[in-house]
Amino acid sequence: MASYQIFLCLILFSFTQIFLGTCLEFQVGGDSGWVVPKSKNDDQLYNQWASKNRFIIGDTVHFKYKKDSVLVVTQEEYEKCKSSHPLFFSNNGDTVFKFERPGLFYFISGVTGHCERGLQMIIKVLEPALPPQSETENSTTLDSTHKGGAADHMISISSTAIVVLVMTFFGMIFM
Predict the structure, then answer these.
(1) What is residue 42's DSSP assignment?
(2) CATH number belonging to domain 20-125
(3) Among 23, 26, 80, 121, which one has the highest count of C-beta atoms within 10 angstroms of its own C-beta?
């Protein structure tokens, strides 16, 4: 009975990883958090950090700060370091922002003077790897380009799905 429960837990964990495992949370500014850069030479500190990471839909950025705020603004407002109507605003000291679309996101501090001193950042969220296709397009493509057997279609199965299948197979053997 115990092996059956372990098996079910493994299956549930695997399915959770399939659907939730690809998104990440990024800690903005590392251990220092969302703070005004110490020198004028660091005015691009957060943009440099953002350019070293790859963001996708579903990822989140976590801002930790004291006596400050985080605003998501338009490109024009970003360039002016000022916004009277931000797209997003938070000043709770522990802000998590989730990316729900691809494109550019402009972040600034809402505290006067902080943005001008480098507390600003642009993040590019990448387009999905494969654009969704309609069922008609998908079946037409498969019919015209993949006339072989099941082995031809095996390439499209994700590695996570294969792991789940293998775990299921071994779970059935050892039950």
Answers:
(1) G
(2) 2.60.40.420
(3) 121
